[in-house]
Amino acid sequence: MRSIEDFKPFVPSKDYETSKAFYQCMGFTVSWDASEVCEIDTGFGYRFLLLPKNHNNYGESLMLHFMVDSAQAWHDHFESVELCKKFPMTRTAPPTLQPWGLLVAYVWDPAGVLLHFAERPDTDARRQDAGESSSDMSE
Fold first, then answer.
1. Is residue 39 a contact partner of residue 31, using CB atoms and an 8 Å limit?
2. Which CATH architecture does the domain made up of 10-131 adopt?
């Protein structure tokens, strides 16, 4: 039988140590570091592999999408840890409702990788409109 045991995207960096520090400032951890690659753990069951190089400026084309319970809470966290002040080559954007229906906060990492922290707004209101309660969805 075929299976996939894990999935970890490779994420480039322009400055390996700066990118590791950036992700740690976000609250992620470095699980292991082999100097040619390290594993970044979000702490929420998802990981990615950070590379020490940005081949062909791949970072400026790469996007990572994180589904979260509150885009605003993540944006507030980035502000509270002073992410952009500590890493001036980065930037954040507050949550904005996108045409596809998700509320998304954005973060650009030191290599230009665009991180999406997206939530489905009004999930509880939509469940109630459909005649479901929050407890129905967890069963």
1. yes
2. Roll (3.10)
